[in-house]
Amino acid sequence: MKNIFKFVYLLFALFAISSCEDGTENSMYDGDATSFFLDKFAVAKGPDVGYKDFDIKIGTMSPLNSAADFEIKRIGGDAVAGTHYEILNGGKVQIAAGSNLGIVKLRVYGAQLSQTIAKTLVFDLVSPSVKKANYNTTISLSLIFGCDSSLEGTYQYSTVNAFAPDAPTNVPGPVTGNVTFTKVSDGLYQISDSSFGAFALFPGYAATSTGVRIEDLCGKLSFKTPNQYGDTFVISNVVVNGNKLTFKWTTSYGEYGTTTLTKSDGNWPALN
Q1: Does 54 share its domain with 136?
Q2: Cα separation of 79 and 272, whole Å?
Q3: How far, in Å, CA of 248 to CA of 162, rounded?
Q4: Number of folded domains in the chain?
Q5: How much is the pLDDT for 215?
Q6: Strand ranges in 49-100 using DSSP code E only, listed in sequence order
Q7: Is 214 exposed, middle or buried (0-12, 13-18, 19+ CB in 10 A)?
Q8: Residue 22 lies in a domain
Q9: Does residue 134 share a domain with residue 168?
Q10: Does one domain contain both 184 and 125?
């Protein structure tokens, strides 16, 4: 099935080339400009507050000779209009002459959506002047609660006021180094060292705290999964100031510290 979709995308990209070298009059495709959805299945996310617009993309097998109207019509699914979604512009779009791409906007509201059990929508594609292709003539959407997140990367950390109950050990700091967030799934990242340098300075501790993940759920940060000692982490006092993200971390065993992560390629998104 993946190969079929790759073939469709390849055809779409190739047929978008409407001219050849001078002196040639070959066309890579000279058949009917049949229409289709670029995606057969897709996931559309909605945030807990407000909405997020999702692009439903419509293509034709070759650029149109003249402008043509298209419309998506709902034919199935359990999502409720006005509660879970809204179709902008009545689901209509016009593809201009010489083009072969159109976009219908679907507005997704996440407040009444589940993060695990999707609401569904199935749309048919219709046009009064352009016939359908023999593939991707319907699109099935899964509507879920969630937001886009892009926290993967390597950041410079600076940790102060780190403490461990054994000894007890207090490290005023700052302790500096680099930490990497590796994406596990949407909004979930593995942390290379969730002690942000502190464990390396605590007597009898491993050099890093491993196994902990951090979740970004529409800007709300939380730690997931325990570290190698079976201790869980809690995040608090989250503050974003440009390219610096500062927070306090506390473990179920009693360790804690305050860490600032600095991005080298721009500012942090709004997080709390």
Answers
A1: yes
A2: 30
A3: 10
A4: 2
A5: 93
A6: 51-60, 68-76, 85-87, 92-95
A7: buried
A8: no
A9: no
A10: no
- Taking the C-alpha atoms of residue 134 and residue 138, their distance in angstroms, rounded to an integer, is 10
Residue 67: give the domain boundaries: 2-16+29-145
- Which amino acid appears at position 104 of this protein? V
Using the Cα atoms of residue 160, residue 165, residue 170 and residue 171 in order, give the sign of their dihedral.
Answer: negative
Pairwise CA distance, residues 50 & 53, whole Å: 10
Q: What is the tens place of the pLDDT at every residue in 31-52?
A: 678 999 999 999 899 988 889 9
Within the chain, which residues score under 50 in pLDDT?
1-29
Helix or strand (DSSP H, E) at 240: strand 233-241
Residue identified by tokens 């000279």 is 30
Is residue 257 situated within a structural domain?
Answer: yes
pLDDT of residue 7: 40
- Report pLDDT for 31: 63
Q: Are residues 37 and 64 in the same domain?
A: yes
Bridge pairing between strands 220-224 and 68-76: unpaired
| pLDDT for 3 | 38
Average pLDDT, the chain: 89
Instruction: Give the Cα separation of 11 and 29 in Å (integer).
Output: 9
Is 3 exposed, middle or buried, given 0-12, 13-18 or 19+ CB atoms closer than 10 A?
exposed
Sort 116 into a burial class: Cβ within 10 Å, 0-12 / 13-18 / 19+. exposed
pLDDT computed for residue 49 by the predictor: 84
CB–CB of 166/254 below 8 Å? no
